[in-house]
Fold these 4 entries.
Entry 1:
Amino acid sequence: MLQLARAVVDFLFPPSCVACAELGREPFCALCEDALLPAGAFALTGLEEARAVLQYGGPAALALFRFKYGREVALARPLGRMLAEVAPLLPRVDVVLPIPLARSRLVERGFNQARELVRGFPARVEPHRLRRARPTRSQAGLRGAERRANVAGAFSVQGRLAGQRVLLVDDVVTTGATMSAAAAAVRAAGAREVHGLALLHADSVL
Ligand SMILES: [Zn+2]
């Protein structure tokens, strides 16, 4: 029965590469997979530790582009599975908070990519606890100090997170300014530990 269900799903939604759309394999075809650069753990201000699945670039960047700017929300499932596979490498957490989008962005895109990526994440996800406290401009095109200033105090937490271990999740971390600003809000709400996870880690400013 499970096999039949799988066959029906494969027929309706044939597995395809999240980067080049080649049919047959998910998330990446063999050719794109060969070009992927795995990422690991890295330090971010205000977090115990942050981790990403892949380095930004090549097929990984293409997949993110299709998902985020091409608004192919269906890619959230295969990409979200990649995030979920990293979960065993992370410390235990009590709650997962996706980084919220600025309201104007949400209206423009129609979905929050971070929220979509954690739909199948194997932990308690609370998508509405972390909020945007004020409007910010896009981080794209801004440099380090400008990025930090742009997002400083940009987040607030609804309710308290007293003593909790929190995992912040975003689609891509670049300088980490956004995640650090979110971590500050989470700590101010009483969190004991703050960890970070992103699908992609970009070393230089996008
Ligand atoms: Zn491919």
Entry 2:
Amino acid sequence: MQRATSITGVWFRTDLRITDHGPLLEAARLEQARGGAVTCVYCLDPRDAGPTEQLGLARRGPFRSRFLLESLADLRSALRAIGGDLVVRRGLPEQVLPELAREEGWAALHLHTLVGTEEEAVEEAVRAALPEACAFRTWWDRTLVDPEELPFSVREVPEVFTKFRRKVERGGSYPEPLPAPTSLASGPAAASDPGDLPTPEELGCADLVDDERAVLRFRGGATAAAERIDAYVWSGDRLKTYKKTRNGMVGADYSSKLSPWLALGCVSARQVQAEVERYERERVRNDSTYWLTFELLWRDYFQLITAKHGAALFRPSGLQGIQRPWQRDAQAFEAWCEGRTGIPLVDANMRELRLSGFLSNRGRQIVASFLTKNLGIDWRWGAEWFEACLVDHDVASNWGNWNYAAGVGNDARGFRYFDIATQASKYDRRGRHARLWCPELAPVPDRLVHAPWDLTRAQQDELGFHLGRDWPRPLVDLDASVAANRERWETAGAR
Ligand SMILES: Cc1cc2nc3c(=O)[nH]c(=O)nc-3n(C[C@H](O)[C@H](O)[C@H](O)COP(=O)(O)OP(=O)(O)OC[C@H]3O[C@@H](n4cnc5c(N)ncnc54)[C@H](O)[C@@H]3O)c2cc1C
């Protein structure tokens, strides 16, 4: 086989798409001009599936593993359709990439840079191990806004979201997505041995069972992302009511459900924003269409805050360094994880998370508040459980939101919590979500579905539903547990 004269490597990470992909587009343009080739690589890094720090959980649970696998298959097809390929290698990127660079004599390695201490460390290790002749070129794609265009540096990102958003919105517009390259010549690694895609067995998701109650069967890849945008925005015409429905908990369409595709970069925030703007031009522009952009800015915010604070994101005292007397009650934590605290609103959401890999934003906020403010348990345990379960895990969004929920992150203002009874009456008044995930509650009338402990003995007999037999007695009294934790925080001198 004849070797191309010049080769550029492109390292795919959480950017599994070919459209709006700066590193790929630039590699294609450069190598086309000089008759060279592009080697696209994905490394299956064993550390991505390794144990979490506090609890030793497998970081990437089966839902995310399957989503990854499907995304890789879709990316490989997309690259093959334009004459390229996806080279898949198992191992540490800091070994795999320099080895390929040496073998093929790469002129450069292109990649999207990421936030997160481990992500940054891997990047640095790859850069350091590359042969001298191989340039290291990075791009940024994790946000809707271009950090270079912001009126402040990353070190000056405001600690309060609203301040950040107002400053960003003064800019007025967001960058357009880039086109996909139209053709690509493959490097020799791809031609000789592109390597097998991982199997479900290898990624530990062969036995995954889909629960029919799940909001969606999330299918990985840019093709499925485009289908979801079409179903939600265009054929479903849901965007115009997003602001009214976004706090829902049941069904596919109360919110966009784009988070898994955004997390793995099957679609970029700029592409989603471009669809929002097209919808505003062609259908309607209202507070709902604006609100999707608003939520994408929350996502941006956590990315930039993570870039600003680095390792502080993961310490118990969080971004703001606020000391709290966190408990480490393994039994209570297990009850929370498994959805058997006896509090229907919490248990239904926790079962949904474990059995489907997804949870509504409302549900995430409720269960995070319950863990940290009713049980007083170390928020990092909750963040690790979410990391292991979620199909859409993203280090900045997950750990940033957990910081926020625990009261140690941005905008920390004393002991704030979600009152479970109020949340239940606002967001699941008739117990539809509770009964969906906790069918044991079926006999309980709507009025008491979120407080079955208030059933008298006679009512329990009449319904054939007994506390302690058909439903766990509540792990804590909701009001008393909040009061006790508040007092412990105040005694410990918390602000
Ligand atoms: C404790 C906790 C942990 C979370 N962990 C993650 C996570 O690991 N990955 C993740 O993508 N989101 C996370 N979120 C944010 C949010 O819950 C999800 O992004 C959202 O529920 C996904 O559903 P959707 O795509 O239908 O969202 P939509 O309501 O349709 O919003 C559109 C997009 O905006 C972004 N977005 C919306 N809300 C937030 C937010 N609060 N923070 C950051 N981005 C947001 C997401 O990319 C989302 O896809 C977490 C929230 C909490 C409270």
Entry 3:
Amino acid sequence: MSPDTIPVLDVRGLSLEFPVFGGAVRALNGVSLRVMPGEIVGIVGESGSGKSVTAMAALRLLPPGGYRVTAGSLHLGGDDVLAASEPVVRRWRGRRAAMIFQEPMTALNPTQRIGEQMVGVLRVHRRISRRDALTQAESLLRDMMIPDPAQVLRAYPFELSGGMRQRVMVAMAFSCDPDLLIADEPTTALDVTVQRQVLQLLRHHARERGTAILFITHDMAVVSQLCDRVYVMYAGTVVEQGPTGQVLREPRHPYTRGLLDGLPEGAPPGSALAAIPGQVPDMRHPPSGCPFFDRCAYADETCRQRPALLPLDVAAEASDAGQDRRRLACWHPLSPAQADAAGGSV
Ligand SMILES: Nc1ncnc2c1ncn2[C@@H]1O[C@H](COP(=O)(O)OP(=O)(O)OP(=O)(O)O)[C@@H](O)[C@H]1O
Ligand SMILES: [Mg+2]
């Protein structure tokens, strides 16, 4: 297999739970998700749907001993993440996959100047001198359109604005030239203008370097701007997936349509998801049937059985580009005409 055909991230049937007093939170229930080299893939879904847990599991960043994988597998660049030793996984972090979080203050060391932190990251993976690392750090910051990189290198994190800190994080994430960048709501805390700039930078540099991105967000407008493909998650499962344009223009799952409904015409990034009436299920007692049952206008007795995530077009699934195809887990998919009524706004 050529390197281009090995997914940078391949999650298959992953089920994962957190033991809690008197039971377990079943955070993921059979999640499958693939990112190919250079692709920009989104995960969208309401709070608690399992987006962050999926991302953290990919880099084995969940609290050791605090969770159990009950089924499935997880590979980075073809290598088994769940079976690898801790030192090996540590080497993969930053290189195979780097992560950017919503709040850079939690990822940056408050007591160290930006320059020191960047030099530290650059020298973990490469044998270069401090001076060379500092030069590289400066050039990475310049790539992020930071006007005075030398000054930022001398600054402490608290001296920078939120937008500037996030640019520093993006620069650091790119610094080890990762195959995959996992960005978990990286722009949610920023105002709309800064958010747009950071997204453009991310997209531009990812495309230029051939870096794949797994982009986690609540925000359908961001997905439409940034992502080639999207996975829609609900209650620890993928309920719909496919090329972004198709899924957003023509959502076939009532949940996806619910997420898109009410998003104003030409909504800018940062627009909140429309609230769908009802609540996400209690994941200590996940429903055995369709997880969206209680909130779905189309639910009937059939939906007490869990629907499988199946290709919309079975013939196309047999082709090589299987992961690009639309899939849907629903007994009563919206017809294209019903779906169209929702998708026109994005
Ligand atoms: N350490 C933990 N212990 C127990 N439960 C957890 C833990 N981490 C996450 N969970 C639970 O796992 C489920 C999925 O959480 P996750 O953080 O992945 O949601 P999310 O989709 O990222 O939501 P948000 O949009 O709010 O970030 C939730 O029910 C959450 O409460
Ligand atoms: Mg999250």
Entry 4:
Amino acid sequence: MIKGKTQGFSLKKFTAAVIGVGGLGCNIATHLAGAGIGRLLLFDFDKISETNLNRQFLYTKDSIGEDKVFEAKKRLEEYSETVCKAYNIKITENNIPEELKTADIIFLAADNLEARKALTEFSEENKIPLVFGGIDGFYGKTYLYIPNITPCPECAGIIEGGKTKSNISAAAGIIGSLQAALGIQYLLTKDISLGGKITVYDSDTFSSLKIISSPKCKTCKNIQRKKDLDD
Ligand SMILES: [Zn+2]
């Protein structure tokens, strides 16, 4: 790769965190490294199983039984200049490493509710934008939360993860790629109009739903009530 500038722009000065390197996370991390992000903080606590291989393309048969996060780091560093740091931990309210505060943006690609809630709170406290993604069968959605600017994930109704066991690998590809594109665009432009909207992919339909925060929401009380977001 050409140093620092891979797709006509430079993301070298940015650090992104990817929480979960499964179906969504493999896509997100691959697109971020491919776009030349400077640093990636990767989080997961799972091991690779054979059933992961159909969609979690950073892993091969030789990786079965290994820790996902270390394998992901190895694969990403094989072809990109991105510096990856791997955390083989389960994120909870009381278990978030200090280094996550250095992230310019966090990508949420884990379907466990505890981690999603803990990271929403962390993001709000540290004013770090958070890109949500979730898939459920053929269906998926993304949401960019910008603390103090957009409605919080609770108001957007996207805290809950997927409920269907049989997720389609193409849906993980579409939603993971959309998360990466949304996050990269936000890092480059800081355009707040990218936030506060749920983008929904439902088999063959894309749509955007603008979110309005609840006046009773504790997280959204400090929101800068931009006319374009609340209309
Ligand atoms: Zn709220």
